[in-house]
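Record format v2
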Amino acid sequence: MKIYVVLYALLFLLIGVNADFVKEQGYQVGDYAADFALEGVDGKTVSLQDYQNAKGYIVIFTCNTCPYAKMYEQRIINLHKRYAEQGYPVVAINPNCPERSPGDAMSEMKKRAEDKGYGFAYLQDLSQETTKAYGASNTPQVFVLDKESTGKYKVAYIGTIDNNYKDADKADVPYVQHAVDALMDGRKVPETKTKAIGCSIKWKMS
Amino acid sequence: MKVFLLTLCLLGGFLISPAQEIQSYSFEELEKKITDESSHQYLVVNFWATWCAPCLQELPYFESLSQDFPNAKLKVLLVSLDLEKDKAIQFKEKKQLQSEVVYLNEVDFNAWINKISPKWSGAIPATLMLSPAGEKKFHEGEYTEAELYGQIKRFIQ
């Protein structure tokens, strides 16, 4: 028994403190994503399955406070305008712990969504379980999901919105658009994984 | 009197300005700088920004590294990923940062993040340590003072 405890402690030490290990978690392109039930700025709980006519989703981990999220805000609004009617709505999830980041409290999220006229669901992941399951690491980060005929959600793209955070007009590779367009046309997504500098997610202090 | 004040301001501004200088780098230039500077000393490259609260939290630990390890040939390079270079300049001046600060002037992050480390998600803070022998250690996320100290100690041994 004793030896198990020691071994367990050792194992915990080895993997528990290794941040790299934690980052390996989460979805990869091709994985199936789990549905969630999170509260939105309108007070209602939203799940992927609520979107009966959706062919897929543009799930975006974003927030009120990150400068990059703000720079991409209009582009997120535009993505929803462009694709929601075609069956690919934006579903935005704020992953930040409001105690650590008061600007990301639900009351602030409501204000922001109203001021900017978000047409999409803006949800709060208070438990951070969904954020962990997806493996989101920073904001803003996009997961494009393809809804299969079986009703499962396959991850088709993970990454950034486009290749110029400063100037939308100068961005000449709109990764998310390319991914969604490809899904609509039944083509292969040209680039399935990209990275971007973003704000780290404000995890709850455990 | 007005003229005198104006002159004083201008002169003051002129005297201070050299200390505020922060150079802009493309990623290619930064990569070369990192290679060059780590060829003869330990180099600790910290990616940060003035808007990033956890970055500012850990910044003083990086600043004191050269005092913590006086016998190691160790240099700290702070790479600002601020949206505007001026923010970094103001911060450097206000906090009297001693480490070299450079500004990375790039808009296409995906083009270079993996070149720093394939393990890097893109969240900051992030830190890359390099030894003259060519060893690399990458860390994403914030350090406590003890963690950073321990990490450097292990790395330079």
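Helices of chain B lie at 2-20, 27-37, 53-63, 65-68, 85-95, 113-116, 145-156.
The interface with chain A takes residues 47, 49, 51-52, 54, 81, 83, 107-111, 113-114, 119-125, 139-142 of chain B (CB under 8 Å).
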